[in-house]
Structure formats: structure tokens, C-alpha cells
Amino acid sequence: MKNEMIIDKASKTLTVTKDFMMKAGQFGTPEFEKALEAKQNFPGFTLVVRTIKRNSEKWTYGKLTYDRMEDFIQNHEKDVETREAKLKEFELVKAWAKTQKAAYAKVKEWFLNEYKEEFRKQEQEAKEKF
Fold it and tell me: Do 125 and 87 reside in the same domain of the chain?
């Protein structure tokens, strides 16, 4: 790892990763020695664990399975011919994706290109019910 420790003189903090902090708590480890040396070189500074900033507005599709995609297509497409055509296309995409690396990602990409806004709207409505 390149930045094991970030020194912030303005806030008097030594920012480290969670892994580094865990290892620094074990006597005799290289991280223990580095933390001890840093505390000696920067008296009054506090060791803090780095936190990752998360985007709360980001949409994720963790529970988007093939079955959910198929159910969505069946329920979303009202016209029988369109529904059948989209389901057939979905099956073709799944078959093609099996020949590629990251098959699920390819199918998910196709599905979101076709139904992203409608699927988001449905998910948002479901969240608001609960």
C-alpha cells in the first residue's frame, strides 16, 4: 500500500487504514513500530482510521437477479407481442452472455439500457411503501 499513513498537520491527525490500525495494535509488528515512531515524531497527534466517503444518492442493483429481470419484463410490457419479443431478446442476451466473461454483468447492462428508468421508479415506489 502506498499511503499507510497520511499526516494532517492542520487537524493534528495521523490517518491510517483499518487494516494498519489492527496490525498496529499487535506488539512487534512493523505497523506497531511505524505507529510508535509516528507518535514520537508527531507528539499531540491522534491516530484515526480512514473512512470511505459513500454516495448516498448512488443507485445499486444488488438484488437484481435474472428472475427479477424476467418478472419485470413480464409485468412491465403490457402489449403481448412486445412482451414476447422482449422476453425472447432477454433469453438471447443471456445465451450470448454465457459465451463472454462476466456474463451476468452483460445481461444486467442490457436490462438497464432497456428499463433503467422504469425499474428505478418501481424500486423507489417499493421503498416508499415500507
Answer: yes
